[in-house]
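== Sequence entry ==
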Amino acid sequence: MHAWLCENPIGVDALQWKELPTPEPGAGQVRLRIEAASLNFPDLLIVQNKYQMKPPLPFVPGSEYAGVVEAVGDGVKHLKPGQRVACLSGTGGFGTHTLAPAALCMPLPDGFPAVDAAAFIMIYATSYHALMDRAQLKAGETVLVLGAAGGVGTAAIQIAKAAGARVIAAASSDDKCALCASLGADATINYTQHGPLGGLRDEIKRLTGGKGPDVVYDPVGGDFAEPAFRSIAWRGRYLVVGFASGPIPSLPLNLALLKGASIVGVFWGDFAKREPQANAAMMQALAGMYAKGQVKPVIDQTLPMADLRKAYAIMGSRSVKGKLVLVN
């Protein structure tokens, strides 16, 4: 097998495409022939030693992937060779083969292409857990999605619309806003025109008739957090999803008091570990939504697995709409 090996987590340039022994699965594991793997923001942080999970060295990055089961280890009963699955295990995806925990593999129904499957679990599980579980989103409510043209943002738009909500999508260009509108967003905000330090708050107020959004979905953080939170409706829920802009913001807690609002943390990874039955039910629901055409990953482009460095550079340029996927 071949894989991108991280022996020194000092950045993308240190990754090496290497030939490695093809491993045999241990107890509770399966060996997958990887068909596709998607690039997520944590995949960039982990090779820079900036992610909260720090795997032992050396490791193969690539948190999310889809492929075909080649072999199963002891105790694996629900999967068999030849079966197609998707998996989000944190590492291992950027190669031709990997060992995956069988318990984390999602069996794929017929008609679920590998490229879509490799781009599915993280963004839809995060967004569904955030909106439907943590925010308890109801039909008729208004959701403001920041970073709306990215992976989790596009997923959030689709899930919120399927739930009957009104969606305001904020993104950084007219092209990205047009994408959000094509996914069902009812209104868009281009924050190069209505910036977080300028007119963002006024534009949110205008688009909500002064009421503010019931739910703010924020995977961006930084300067966007405070104006968005100041705009929130009475009893609003502010979802802390991530910090793609870099800085972790500090919010004045008196704002939560004045708005009767909640600041709600979203950590899907730990939810999946602590509440596995609830997570399994959620993933079944999402697979059903995919089958009905209610959700479908937005794929910016696919590249050969050998072009991983190029994919990282594209992600770093912040030009990506939806997801980048690498294919074997």
In short: The chain has a mean pLDDT of 93. The chain has two domains: 2-120+297-327, 123-269. The domain at 123-269 is CATH 3.40.50.720 (Rossmann fold).
